[in-house]
Amino acid sequence: MTEKGTVRDMAANAEDTPAKELPFVAQRLDLLFRIASEKAGRKIGAGTVADGINATAGEKVIEQSYIWQVRTGRKDNPSYKVLAQLAEYFGVHPAFFFPDDARLTVAPEIQVALTDERVRNLALLSVGLSDSSIEAITMIAKNSRQLEGLPKHSAK
Asked: Domain HTH cro/C1-type: where (predicted)?
């Protein structure tokens, strides 16, 4: 069996593991993968993330198998350096991976969504609008998601 076949098998097994049974870091990393996949309109795998991190570093600094192991909870104590690399790739602060950070009281899906400047600007523009205006914007967003073939909402 090739290494890619092994990784593919590992990824299939990872999808079968419910997120609530995973260690905290694995839950957070899995969430980032799911959100990135939804944004990209295709499944993002550990290989894509490893390639991106390695390209940014200009050298091979992480293996896709290690990322998979962290995502599935098989490695449950990655170094801060690894977490910082993953955080940079996904556009979140490294503290995203630590449960006792006060900023994590905001739902993780919202934290990740707000790393997109366009989403953040849309949210800020809606502050102070009437209930009927907010409802109208919500309907436009829902209709847009439907037209683009996206799920009704990105958060669980």
From this structure: 64-97
Give the global pTM.
Answer: 0.58
Nearest C-alpha neighbor of 98 from the set 17, 25, 2, 9: 25
Q: Comparing C-alpha atoms, which of 59, 122, 65, 67 is closest to residue 90?
A: 67
- Indicate the pLDDT class of residue 105, thresholds 50, 70 and 90: low
Q: Are 67 and 50 in contact, with CB atoms under 8 Å apart? A: yes
Amino acid at position 74, single letter: R
Question: Residue 154 in contact with residue 35, Cβ under 8 Å?
Answer: yes
Number of structural domains (the chain) is 2
Q: Please, what sign has the CA dihedral across residues 40, 28, 66, 81?
A: positive
**How far is 113 from 148, CA to CA, in rounded Å?**
18
CB-CB contact of 49 with 67 (8 Å): yes
Do 127 and 69 belong together in one domain? Answer: no
Please give the Cα distance from 137 to 99 (Å, whole number). Answer: 33
Q: State how far the Cα of 77 lies from the Cα of 68, in Å rounded to an integer.
A: 13
CA–CA distance, 6 with 27 (Å, rounded to integer)? 22
